[in-house]
Amino acid sequence: MKLSVWTYEGPPHVGAMRVATAMKGLHYVLHAPQGDTYADLLFTMIERRDRRPPVTYTTFQARDLGADTANLFKTACLEAYERFQPEAIIVGASCTAELIQDDPGGMAETMGLRVPVIPIVSAMPPGSSWISSAVQDAPTMIASG
Predict the structure, then answer these.
(1) Which of 10, 43, 115, 118 is a plausible cystine mate for 14, CB 3.0–4.6 Å?
(2) Are 88 and 118 in contact (CB under 8 A)?
(3) Is residue 96 situated within a structural domain?
């Protein structure tokens, strides 16, 4: 048996945030529940960057799940577009928000924004469960041979 060594760099939405932070004229609208908004702290407090990443969060809460969370995303996306006037927008969901399957990319494309919209494609296909994926992939990730 050979142990496979790998490093966890964070969830996909943090990687997308790194891209948005590294580019000018780009803004990231992240559909995420309260608690998943810690990511910008990685840049300001841990990495000591001089400015916050260009990110707008929907920040929905548990009580919002009984209503229309898709509408929260659309409102946040439109407000970010109007306030920051980016040349392009990245849209995506945190790992937790992917479970409600609101499809930020599809929603943003129907909003008629006058800039390119770049959706972050989910790592999970619709109808799958991150738990079943993790259990299925765990033996491959841990050991090979």
Answers:
(1) 10
(2) yes
(3) yes
